[in-house]
Amino acid sequence: MRQLNILVINPNSTEAVTAGIDRALEPLRIAGGPTLECITLKEGPPGIETQAQVDAVIAPICALIEKRQDSVGAFIIACYSDPGLHRARETTSKPVFGIAESAMVTALTLGERFGIISILEGSIPRHARAVRAAGLAERFAGDIAIGIGVTDLAGDDGVLERLVSAGRRLKDDHGAGVVILGCAGMASYRKRSENALRIPVVDPTQAAATLAIGAVRLR
Predict the structure, then answer these.
(1) Same-domain status, 69 and 131
(2) Which residues contact 73 (CB under 8 A, 6 or more apart)?
(3) Fewer beta carbons within 10 angstroms: which end of the chain, N or C?
(4) How far apart are CA 23 and CA 214, in angstroms?
């Protein structure tokens, strides 16, 4: 039987991040469409901010995917570092979407060059590696960090101001025609950032969910 449930995995252990992702996906929940179930990886750190933390969550992510694969039509790994994406794809025959990869694919359809807003400076090298691995260096405008960790993204107005400031620099100084929010925890700021910047702003988990919905509907 065709499975239409899409499992969205937040690899950090902060429930507020999962709740924010869940709210951001509400517009994609339509009658007769796939369900979008958001869960928190209890084994994860409060925020994934280093390569060591990325590496540490790969095994539990894959174990969870293996456990749930018979009841799920597609999986989304909702961390912008796409931890364990390729290993997860070897774990299951079901589609697995990384939000960074999905966001970049989506950004290519919205403008000539895309920029990324990171949480911390340490995120920038990981993002740059992902851009190069995807062969998208020619379409990449730049990456600017706002200096706020994952667990502090609920600060609202102060966070929004930094996001908009970074987005304006990417747009005005780096020539970005599209901006990607480089953390799943930024989901609640997408629309407000887009309204302020007047260019498309991509929330990566929304981008992944859109692709996953198409994948399970067409299987």
Answers:
(1) no
(2) 2, 3, 4, 5, 6, 34, 94, 95, 215, 216, 219
(3) N
(4) 20
For the segment 120-134, the average pLDDT, to the nearest whole number, is 95
- Please check whether residues 113 and 176 belong to one and the same domain: yes
In 3D, which of 4, 24, 14, 6 has the Cα closest to residue 204?
24
Provide the domain count of the chain. Answer: 2
Which two three-digit tokens encode residue 170?
């990417």
Tell me 47's DSSP state: S
Rounded distance, CA 127 to CA 67, Å?
29
CATH number for position 89 = 3.40.50.12500
Domain match, 125 and 211 both: no
Give pTM, 2 decimals.
Answer: 0.94
The mean pLDDT of the chain is 95
